[in-house]
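Page 37, top half.
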Amino acid sequence: MSGHSKWSTIKRKKAAVDAKRSQVWTKLIKEIQVAAKMGGGDPDGNPRLRLATDRARAANVPKDNIQRAIDKGTGGGGESWEDVTYEGYAPAGVAIVVECTTDNRNRTVGEVRHIFDKHGGNMGNSGSVAWMFKKRGLINVLKASAAEDRLMELALENGAEDIRDDDEVWTVDTDPSSFMAVKDAIENAGVAIEHAEVDNIPDTRIEVTDDDTASSVLKLVGALEELDDVQNVYANFDIPDEVIDRVGG
């Protein structure tokens, strides 16, 4: 793997601000509930739940709220949730993958399609753009928290595939199956993790330098992320920082 997803970098930099929004807490709680319902309430035996609870703690979701979501998920009854993925294109041919968790497919696909249409994009068929992305586990460690040699030793011994320099952080790159083992090894060694997630990394990126086009792409992605049923949005755009600053992304 080389380079890093521009959208992932943007998400990481704004994570501290986003975590204060109640909508983010709502989505995290929903993911915990769904993960517990689908795979049981023990995080050690349910990797999806473990990742969801870790993300919730990082966003300062209260422990009681997390436990209530687990209890609700394992209690039986309630909503019938399912994971669905939608794909499409933003302006300039930017590929978009939208991961949702919903109890009503018709509602969700209608809302997602409306956002694509409103912001100059279009939805595609299943598989139309997903092949351009690969799931990767990414762990960001501030350079001040660990020397590269020490971090490399910890990560590679526990299944990581690469470590790279991403400005102010080291990025540890793993296969999703090794993500939790590598994350645990780093944390157990007393190294603070700044951000960790299983991301969807594009094989190629489309550079967008026109201000109007960049604004449309960012508005489309942002509007998708605002939808209640949307859990993750992945895109293969590469917008220079100065353009993002100009258009207010």
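Page 37, bottom half:
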Amino acid sequence: MERFGLLILFLALGTFAAHAQTGVYAEYGASWYGIPNLSVQSGPTFGLYYQHWGVPFVRAGLDARASFMGSGSGKTEDTGLIGPRVQIKPHILPLMPYGEALIGVSHVDVGEGFARTQGNEFEWALNAGIDFTILPHIDWRVVDYTYGGIPKNPVNSNPNTVSTGLVVRLP
């Protein structure tokens, strides 16, 4: 009976160490802040994720990303974030939903007395999205939604960002 229990434990641990996957992505999105007189800002996000742990339908790892949002009138938000990532990978459908909890730094300059930071400030973000496999190593990032917070910003803004883009999964 003990051997049977050890066999089950060995098989369970063996499935936990799933095939590692690295993805490089580029997105373009728009952010809004809920601040009066502030237009929507748009710009690119670039990132890299690495997923090493998992079970048959769930993978976990880390994501690191940098965003460069601006409105064309000198109003900008540049961020660098990193944190854990969890992805659901149903093998029947080419859809892969994911979620992340990220922390990092942000430099916001939206002026006009509403939200101006001097230097870098702490930022947190909760992120969720769906990737759709279009080719064996290429995914369309259908939607990526980020809700964040910059606590030291004078108005304690909470940027909301929606973006779309492409992911290249490295073999």
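Margin note: The domain at 19-170 is CATH 2.40.160.20 (Porin).
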